[in-house]
Every structure is written in structure tokens, then in C-alpha cells.
Amino acid sequence: MPQIEAIQNELRAQGLDGWLFYDFHHRDPIAAHILGLESGGLGTRRWFYLIPARGNPQKLVHRIESRALDALPGAKLVYAGLDELRRNLTRLLRRVKKVAMQYSPRNAIPYVSMVDAGTVELVRAHGCKVLTSADLVQKFEACWSAEQYRAHLTAGRVIDRVAQEAFLHAAQHVREKSRLTEYDLQQWILAEFRAAGVVTEEPPIVAVGAHTADPHYEPLAAGSSAIRAGDLLLLDIWGKLNRPGSVYYDVTWVGYLGKKVPAEYAKIFSVVSEARDRVIAFVQKSLAAGRVLQGWQVDRIARDVIGNAGYAKYFVHRTGHNIGQQVHGNGANMDSLETHDSRQILSQTCFSVEPGIYLQKFGVRSEVNVYVDGQEARVTGPVQTGILPLLA
Q1: What is the pLDDT of residues 130-154, one digit of tens each?
Q2: N or C end of the chain, less CB within 10 A?
Q3: What is the DSSP string of 225-271?
């Protein structure tokens, strides 16, 4: 059941007349999650659900899928033909002038841009000004409860342990000169997750050598590289507890399968870690001073550090992403590159800080999670201070 009263309070605070949810063929998972609708089932006809700033919600559904929104409160309007849809949409929106939808002007925040352009045009034709729901989505989708924060820390302890044991596992195979591939180590990590009650949407990234220069490298059963002495080994591991409502923990560590880390690797890690640490300090100082922070501002800090070191063109992704019940959540991202994320970083939200430099022969990334609680921001796990020499 959606938090109708809380949503209405936020609508009034933002000067909006309503929040109009719309779906067709289950194209808007944000709407389903915020409204508490079960996934699956028929979705072959369009529906609308309006939460007004004042008064009772209303729904508009097709006659042959008339029960689609029965789990939600509010009066029901039904339609069959296009003319009836338009007439009833007029009734639905008759007191609404400014309405939020899962829409983003010029697709500036594509993560919330779920409503097609034609539907936005249809709503505008009924005299409504359509505004983005990006901040509303963040408020009701990205903010954690105290229980979720505790679940994040619990998952983090498991994941940090597994990451360190994965490095030891790889080092043992190298010492014994027994074959272990990137894919083998990935599957070993997943087995450890299952044993500890941790689940993940997608398997972790395990990369050696030139594969570390691919930020989203995916080792496959056929064709993944063997892990050998002298390899740089990057582990990007994320997971959450196997329980309803749990949230992710997502970190990246780098190790070297040798006794002494080569200078070229250490140099790049020092730049990346400085960018990471500068971001953390910036966020902490800004929030402690009571300043409003937007995602793009955080990204600029890391980008300036890496750019000043001469590696700007090798930092090819955003500095961080929101973390929630999905590893890439629906809150503000630390991004001024791929998008200009102007969403405010809210209290009770969590995001990754993961600058990286990706050269032709190798790449380095360091990732931590930062949780914001009022005017405080804290890293929720250990911070890597140097590439780990795994055969020392």
C-alpha cells in the first residue's frame, strides 16, 4: 500500500497538484514499487493512477483489465475505446494543473524517464503542466529505513570477508600453479554468497590484466582469462541479504599477484584513491556545514583530481551511483559526465564513490559506499589504501 498521506504532504511541499502514475506492459517498475503493486500479471492495457495533493486518489483502467488497480485506494473510472479514455482522463485531471510523472525534460535523468513522449503529450493536451517526478521518486524509493541500513552493514561484513578470501583463494592457486580462471573465481564468490545468505542481481566482476581496463567486464565460462603470477586482479562485488526489502553493498578492491606492486600500478591507484578520498571529504564537510549537495557537484571533485593528474580521458564513467534494493538505485547519482544529475543528495540515502582510470593495458578502480544521515556522511566499510600484494 502506498504512503498516500506522506506523498500528499510532499506534493504540497513541492507546490504540485498531483502525482500521476501511468503504466503499459509493465514498463514502469518505479510505479509498481512505489504503489506496492505485485509484479507480473496482465498488463496489456494502459492504466493511470492519480494521487492528488489534496483529496482521494483516483484510478483509470481498461474494462477488460478493470481489476488492475483494485489493491489501491480511490474511486475507479473505466474505459474501453480511445474516446472514452480521453473523456475519463479529462475527469481525472480536471483539478490538476501541475502534475508530476516519471518523465525527465530532455531525458536529463534517464533513470526516471519511464513515460513515453506521446503519453506526456496526451496529458499536456488536457491542460496539465507535466513536471519530473525525479525528486519524489528519490524521496519514496531511495531513502532507507533503520532496518535497511543495518541489513546493508550485515551484508557488507559478508562481502568484505568474501572479497579478501577471494584474493587469498587466487593467490593459493597461483602458488600451487593450479589453473583458476576469472570465471572460476567469480563462481567461487557466488558459492560463498549462497552459503552466507547473500544474493545478487548480477554476478561480480572478476578481471585480470587488460580486462581490468573494461569497467563492466563480464567473465564467461568460455574464454575468460586464467589468473597468473604478475596479474593485476580487480574484484567488483555487490550483494544484499536474502530477505524482503534488503539493500545492496557494493565495493571494488584491487590486488596484485606478486610480492611487490609495480610502480605503474601503484601510481594509478594513488590518483584514484586521492580522488575517492577528496570526494568523501567534500561530502562530509559540505553536509556538516548544512549545504545542499547535488550529485553532479560530487562527481566534479573526483573528475578534477583525475584531470589534474593528466588522466581525464581515461575516467569514462560517473563517480558513483545510488544504492538501494537494486544495486543501481533510484536516488541521486554522482554524475556530471553521463548526465548532469541535479538531484539533491537526501538524508537516509546511500551511494557509491568509485573513481577509476582505464588505460589500454590495465585499469584501476576503488569503490566504497557512503551513507548520508542528516548532516553526517560515513563510509560503511573498510577503505583500501594501496593495491594488495597477494604473494608477499
Answers
A1: 999 999 999 999 999 999 999 999 9
A2: N
A3: PBP-TT-EEEEEEEEEESSTT---EEEEEEEESSSS--HHHHHHHHH
DSSP letter (8 states) at residue 63:
G
Q: How far is CA 85 from the centre of its chain?
A: 35
Q: Considering the entire predicted model, what is its pTM?
A: 0.95
Helices vs. strands in the chain: H and E counts, helices first = 9, 17
Burial degree of 292 (CB within 10 A; 0-12, 13-18, 19+): exposed
Question: Nine-digit cell at 189?
Answer: 564468490
Per residue in 315-338, pLDDT (tens digit) is 999 999 999 999 999 999 999 999
3-class state of residue 312 by DSSP: helix
Residues in the chain: 392
| Residues 308, 339: Cα–Cα separation, whole Å | 21
Residue 324 backbone phi and psi in degrees, to 5: -150, -145
HEC letters along 170-204? HHHHHHHCCCCEHHHHHHHHHHHHHHHCEECCCCC
Q: 15-32: per-residue pLDDT in tens?
A: 999 999 999 999 999 999
pLDDT above 80: residue 178: yes
Arithmetic mean of pLDDT, 81-94: 97
Q: Look at residue 38 in the predicted model and tell me its pLDDT.
A: 78
3 state DSSP class of 324: coil
Other C-beta atoms closer than 10 Å to the C-beta of 63 total 11
Note whether 92 and 69 are within 8 A (CB).
no
> Other C-beta atoms within 10 Å of 56: how many?
11
In order of their start, the domains of the chain are 4-141 (3.40.350.10), 143-389 (3.90.230.10)
What is the per-residue pLDDT for 279? 98
Look at residue 60 and give its three-state secondary structure.
strand
Provide the angle, in degrees to the nearest 10, between the axes of the packed helices 82-92 and 117-124.
Answer: 60
